[in-house]
Amino acid sequence: MSVTLNVNGVDHTIDATPDTPLLWAIRDYLNMTGTKFGCGMAMCGACTVHMDGSPIRSCSTPIQMAEGKKITTIEGVESPAAVAVKEAWTEIQVPQCGYCQSGQVMSAVALLEGNPNPSDEEIDAAMSGNICRCATYVRIRSAIKSAAKQLG
Ligand code: FES
Ligand code: FES
């Protein structure tokens, strides 16, 4: 069965069952490997992408739910908030091993797109579903504040 997904502004028709996880479609069918597999159970945030601008866990989202929606991955995120977040991430050298970081960036961008000047509490709430085994949390918060300043 075929399903059409709009990913980063381009329609892709793939031959897969409707319950295929969106993460599988992105990585294995579309060969976009920036989005990572961590837990597979919506518990770590490594697989975070945007669906119509909201952060979702692609490991636990069947492709039938993504049909007709705009999916954005780390490869295609380019809003002003995304540019500011990526610059801040580089400047502050947030990543350690890097595995969780595309998910962290996608959650941070979604936060700043909805709230360009978040408080510490709002940052913690928005980022609480993104786990980092390397504990880069302090740098993540600094980078989000730096990006917010740049946007303001
Ligand atoms: S891999 Fe999706 S939340 Fe962990
Ligand atoms: S940078 Fe290593 S898991 Fe986050």
TrEMBL record:
Superkingdom of the source species:
Bacteria
**Which organism was this protein described from?**
Marinobacterium mangrovicola
The answer to whether keyword Oxidoreductase applies is yes
Any Pfam family: Fer2
GO function term, MF aspect, one: 2 iron, 2 sulfur cluster binding
What are the record keywords, sorted? Answer: 2Fe-2S, Iron, Iron-sulfur, Metal-binding, Oxidoreductase
Q: What is this protein called?
A: Isoquinoline 1-oxidoreductase alpha subunit
Q: Is Ribosomal protein set as a keyword in this record? A: no
- All copies of domain 2Fe-2S ferredoxin-type, residue ranges: 1-77
